Amino acid sequence: MLGLLLKKQMTEIFRGYFYSSKNNKKRSVGSTIGFFILYLFLMVGVVGGMFVYLSITLCKPMYAAKMSWLYFVIMALLAIVLGTLGSVFNTFQQLYISKDNDLLLSMPIPIRSIVLARLAGVYLLGFMYSAVVIIPSVIVYWVVADINSKVIIGPVLLTLLVSVVVLILSCVLGWGVAKISLKLKNKSFITVIFSLLFIGLYYFVYYKVEKILQELLTNLAVYGNEVKAKANILYLFGKIGEGYIPSMIGFTVTLVAVTVLVLAIISKSFIKIATSQGTVAKVRYKEKIIKEKSPFKALLEKEMKKFTSNANYMLNCGFGSIFVILFGGLILIKKELIFEIIDGFVQTTSSMDITVCEGDIVIIFITVICALIALNDMVVPSVSLEGKSIWILQSLPVKPWNILKAKICVQLIITGIPMIFCQICMLLIMRSSVIELILAMLIPIAFLVFITLFGMYLGIKRPNLTWTNEITPIKQSLSVAIAMFGGMAVPVVMCTIYLVIAKPIGSVVYMCLVLVLMLAGSGIFYMWLKKKGSELFAKL
Q1: Engineering a disulfide at 525: which of 110, 192, 434, 453 sits with its beta carbon 3.0 to 4.6 angstroms away?
Q2: Average pLDDT over residues 507-516
Q3: pLDDT grade, residue 498 (50/70/90)?
């Protein structure tokens, strides 16, 4: 039975790589390989590259100072933090609020088998996140160090133990989130707030990382002695990477015991949490007049409530709004610094016989704003999130186009308001002509409409209605990846084309051409969605 559950869990996780969400047929070998290559490029090439650089910076001086253990402590802690943050909410989703919980619990299946199968998926996801950090650090260490049996076995065991620590922390924190969520009414917003705090802390540390590294490398001996004296357990944990046998045995036995204990606790409380609906305060209803709403307004409110009631949906698909607001605030707060950067850029390029005008700066600002708003992609999974309940929408006495239009408007509203704020902040500091500033306002608006309609097109063409975990259509979707990375690439490519090729025609003419192209693309997708898209939605 456990084997079947494990097979089911792995199939759900990797289904998008092997089966088409459009027709539910098995993909070709070439298509499957392409999916995996794309994932490896995004995770290893883009994200992992940063940690490769960090590993190279730390490994050589620490190995030369005979403090490889400190190198492994730093990289292991980074891997644990990234792995835990990446999988903690997935643990909550997979364990306690998966859509097939009721079905599995109604069958004669041992609770421990269900929990083990679910934790296998959690472990795999946590390992994928932590591996982005720990595997590059191990490879760099093997290149730098003198190869022997301890140098090989120690880092391999450390990699496995790091993933076990991630599993334990994800389970404990996921269990805590589940227990707390039962007592909270607005649990999604609480989840989002805590997630934003974690993310804010991460970026703060990342911003300070260069200074921290310089301080660390300058005072290696001092910090090494402090860790040994005040956090000896970290010292022993880092010695695993050096192949220190007592640490290898001690931590392996300890983590296995803790894992068994966590499994027992989760198995004991699983049914109660998974089947609980939570408790809310009693509300005394009062008679009031019900205002009539138009069908479109009712649909829009429904879509807004769906977005704001799902923490994963908000965090993964609406995060761009936060960055847009932060960028606008940075423009206002650091206005003098922005002017200094612009003036310095102009002076530098002038000395290289390259003429830079204010219009060039406007295009660069537009590029940044458009790239940030492309991070929002809530419209792409909106159809897939209906799941098997999509027939309810299809049976409503409203036109399919009104349903799609409501989903489109959610992204336009949630992204558009922060975008306009950022544009106003930009206008306050720019020293350009009136027509350039008008175009600077119009192009991001046109781009937002374009990527929203394009995202709706992807959502209609490639829906996934057979998921059991909401994470699948939100994060494990090729359509979402295409919409996000493709949307970010478009403004970058257009800016590059202008600076490299099209600069002689002038910034105003080029921005007008871009605006026309955006409007034309939006018009094409609008007409397709209104006719063909509505027909496809009605037949899903």
Answers
A1: 453
A2: 92
A3: confident
Given a contact cutoff of 8 angstroms between Cβ atoms, the answer to whether 22 and 540 are in contact is: no
User: At which residue do the structure tokens 């992992």 appear?
Assistant: 48
Contact between 465 and 540 (Cβ < 8 Å): yes
Question: For the ranges 27-36, 95-104, 233-242, 286-295, which has the lowest average pLDDT?
Answer: 27-36
Neighbours of 35 (CB within 10 A): 17
Ramachandran region of residue 278, left (φ > 0), alpha (ψ -120 to 50) or beta? left
Contacts for 522-528: CB closer than 8 Å, 24+ residues apart: 522/446, 522/449, 522/450, 522/453, 525/450, 525/453, 525/454, 525/456, 525/457, 526/453, 528/457
Q: What phi, psi does 145 have (nearest 5°)?
A: -80, 160
Task: Please tell me whether residue 510 adopts helix, strand or coil conformation.
Answer: helix
pTM as predicted: 0.66
The C-alpha atoms of residue 147 and residue 138 are separated, in whole angstroms, by 12
The answer to whether residues 58 and 501 touch, using CB atoms and an 8 Å cutoff, is no
Please provide residue 98's backbone torsions phi and psi, each rounded to the nearest 5 degrees.
-65, 145
Q: Which tens digits make up the pLDDT trace of 77-110?
A: 888 888 887 777 677 677 776 767 777 777 777 8
* 203 burial via Cβ count (<10 Å: 0-12, 13-18, 19+): exposed
